[in-house]
Design a protein that fits this description.
The chain is built from 18 helices and 20 strands. It is an alpha/beta fold and 505 residues long. It folds into 2 domains: 14-105 and 226-488, Aldolase class I (TIM Barrel); 121-221, CBS-domain. The strands form 6 sheets. An 8-stranded parallel barrel has the order 4-5-11-12-13-14-15-16, surrounded by 7 helices. A 3-stranded mixed β-sheet has the order 8-9-10. A hairpin with a 2-residue loop joins strand 17 and strand 18. The radius of gyration is 25 Å and the shape is globular. The chain starts with 13 loop residues before the first helix and ends in a 17-residue tail after the last helix.
Length: 505
């Protein structure tokens, strides 16, 4: 009997999946499983944000004023990702955030939070709640470069019931200090030998000039994947608009050491953005530029020809974005990512999938269809490191989260990305809302990374480059999902259940 070879290839290639006339989102299809011959710990998540900059993890925070300032950028960079600082602020304020990130890894804190003896324990409590640290230097007038008179730590105030007592009454005055000019290694040795948490650095007149923290000693050990430049400083990006004032903003950010400029436009295919890309590439050596937002190959072509080093993809898929609803312009996000990545790969330009990410599965899909990294807003909003204060509503601990095209954000400057800054009538393309407390990025990012590694194991690929090779070779297979299949693929048939939270303690 003559044997026959059966066709065992299931599903569709990426080309076949996205050739239809209907735009697809991340939830409209699944990736078919591959062969497992490795552990999740074997998966490497290294990928490019631009053609010149590689990150250890493909996570980027959105340049929104309720998502990314220096605290978020520092935490993400330590975890192997990158934060993009928003521009709903003055040039000096944005530059200050960038400088804080670039200074952070050198060990000497040159802008510590300082209080005076006249402040109270309740003032210290507020700082601890907002920044999640204590150990505050006390100077005569509560200002930097003033005479150091003490330090207050948890041990000084933990068991004091009266939180209105002045710090001058409880602070430690017998201090171990370092002298100005001391090396970081010498400062670290003092911390190790004395077993103190903070080492104030003073000059010959006793004025506070810097601070070294014991927690900084653990950075290289605890964060081996940290995103660093050639000078071992943490990497950070910053957003700018296409307005003329952004030329001054870029110059100031460049002097501060910014690694990437993201031109923040809702619709990036404009003469204004092309001019801004050319300006930056012509005037600032070794400064990478990410153009966008784009969703079509033609848009990609124009920005790549202008000199963009990376592209940001997405128009309307964000959880607080209503661009598609109000403007009737945009594209379904999965289709946008696949089509733009398919084109840009011919020029070595990586794609940032921006918007539509609500869980680790969405991240996996975005990477599987060609994205090199993902940019997230709502996923990082609500973390300790996101700007803003927590508040309670119906018993839930929340933080404010708003679209940069919401009326509230546009009043603060967000309209710079929508070519509407001089218009008297503002048309909102976003909303304001709130998101649930997710804890610290320090815990949240490892949670996302582990989920992504397990997804890669199920797909049968150990890294993002191999995943992309399989995509374009037709070896990675997909299957469309009906609405009933999507419902079946989620929780169903239960009287009640508790949904797993993404908040990690």
């Amino acid at each position: 009997m003559k044997s026959t070879i059966l066709d065992i290839e299931d599903g569709f290639t990426g080309e076949e999946l996205f050739k239809g006339p209907v735009g697809l989102t991340y939830k409209d299809f699944l990736i078919l499983p591959g062969f497992i011959d490795f552990n999740p710990s074997d998966v490497e998540l290294e990928s490019k944000i631009t053609k010149n900059i590689i990150l250890k993890k493909p996570f980027i925070s959105s340049p929104m004023d309720t998502v990314t300032e220096s605290s978020m950028a520092i935490s993400l960079a330590l975890q192997g990702g990158m934060g993009i600082v928003h521009y709903n602020n003055t040039i000096d304020e944005q530059v200050d955030h960038v400088r804080r990130v670039k200074r952070y890894e050198n060990g000497f804190i040159t802008d510590p939070i300082i209080l005076s003896p006249e402040h109270t324990i309740s003032d210290l409590d507020k700082i601890k709640e907002k920044h999640d640290f204590s150990g505050i230097p006390i100077t005569e007038d509560g200002k930097f470069s003033s005479k150091l008179v003490g330090i207050v730590t948890n041990r000084d105030v933990d068991f004091e019931p009266n939180r209105n007592i002045k710090l001058g009454q409880v602070m430690t005055t017998e201090l171990i200090t370092g002298k100005q000019g001391i090396s970081l290694k010498e400062a670290n040795n003092i911390l190790k030998n004395s077993k103190i948490g903070k080492l104030p650095i003073i000059n010959s007149s006793g004025l506070l000039v810097a601070l070294v923290s014991r927690s900084d000693l653990k950075k290289n050990k605890d964060f081996p994947d940290a995103s660093k430049d050639q000078n071992k400083r943490l990497r950070v990006g910053a957003a700018v608009s296409t307005l003329p004032e952004s030329k001054q903003r870029v110059e100031a950010l460049y002097e501060a050491g910014v690694d990437v400029i993201v031109i923040d436009s809702a619709q990036g295919n404009s003469v204004y953005q092309l001019e801004m890309i050319r300006f930056i590439k012509a005037n600032f050596k070794n400064l990478d530029v990410v153009g966008g937002n784009v969703v079509t190959k033609e848009q990609c072509k124009n920005l790549i020809e202008a000199g963009a080093d990376g592209l940001r993809v997405g128009m309307g898929p964000g959880s607080i974005c209503i661009t598609q609803e109000t403007m009737a312009v945009g594209r379904a996000q999965a289709t946008a990512v696949y089509k733009t990545a398919q084109y840009a790969r011919n020029f070595g330009i990586p794609i940032i999938a921006d918007g539509g990410i609500s869980n680790t599965g969405d991240i996996s899909v975005a990477l599987a269809i060609g994205a090199a990294t993902v940019m997230m807003g709502s996923m990082f909003a609500g973390t300790n490191e996101a700007p803003g204060e927590y508040f309670y509503e119906n018993g839930m601990r929340l933080k404010k989260y708003r679209g940069m095209a919401s009326l509230e954000a546009m009043k603060a400057g967000g309209d710079k990305r929508y070519f509407s800054e001089n218009q008297k009538i503002k048309v909102a393309q976003g909303v304001s809302g709130a998101v649930v407390d997710k804890g610290s990025v320090t815990n949240f990012v490892p949670y996302l990374a582990q989920g992504l590694r397990q997804s890669f194991q199920d797909m049968g690929y150990k890294n993002i480059p191999d995943l992309h090779k399989a995509l374009y070779a037709g070896n990675l297979r997909f299957e469309r999902r009906s609405e009933s299949a999507q419902a079946q693929g989620s929780v169903h048939g239960l009287y009640s259940y508790s949904k797993p939270t993404m908040r990690v303690e």
